[in-house]
Amino acid sequence: GPDFSHEEQAGRPAYRGQLQSGVHMAVLVVYSFVLSPVCPVAPLLSYLWIMHRINWDKAGLSYVFQRPHPLVSRGGGFWIDSFPLIVTMACLVQVPLVLFCSRALSFWLPGVTLEERWGAFAGLEAAVLLTA
């Protein structure tokens, strides 16, 4: 079992509480809901990262309670590092599409109706989702 001696426990970092331990996942979930209209893949990727994190913590807890000297886990790894890239790519793709289909398009092409603009937006959005 684990070594619960005072010397071993003194070397561990202090537990910051349940709120602090889950705050990264809570912020990630909030951002995924906020950004889901911009990048429909963001909730799926954040869900995959959360599941990875849960499995990582489960493995870490199993290691702590089976062996006397646990190692520090590395954290989210690929998923948490890729989240800013996903948001940046979503902005680079979606903002030009919204600008293209907005009222600014009627300034350059006055003959294009609102339905045609949003039809073009829906078609381009489908093309983005199919190529992703």
Structural account:
This is Anoctamin transmembrane domain-containing protein. Keywords: Membrane, Transmembrane, Transmembrane helix. InterPro entries: Anoctamin_TM (IPR049452). With about 130 residues, this protein is mainly α. It has a domain at about 5-80. The protein contains seven helices and no strands. It has helices spanning about 5-10, 20, 25-35, 40-65, 80-100, 105-110, 115-130. Helix 3 packs antiparallel against helix 4. The radius of gyration is 23 Å and the shape is rod-shaped. The mean pLDDT is about 70.
Sequence-ordered SSE layout with sheet pairings:
Layout: H1 6-10, H2 18-21, H3 23-35, H4 42-64, H5 78-100, H6 104-108, H7 114-131
InterPro entries: Anoctamin_TM
Organism: Hemiselmis andersenii (Cryptophyte alga)
Keywords: Membrane, Transmembrane, Transmembrane helix
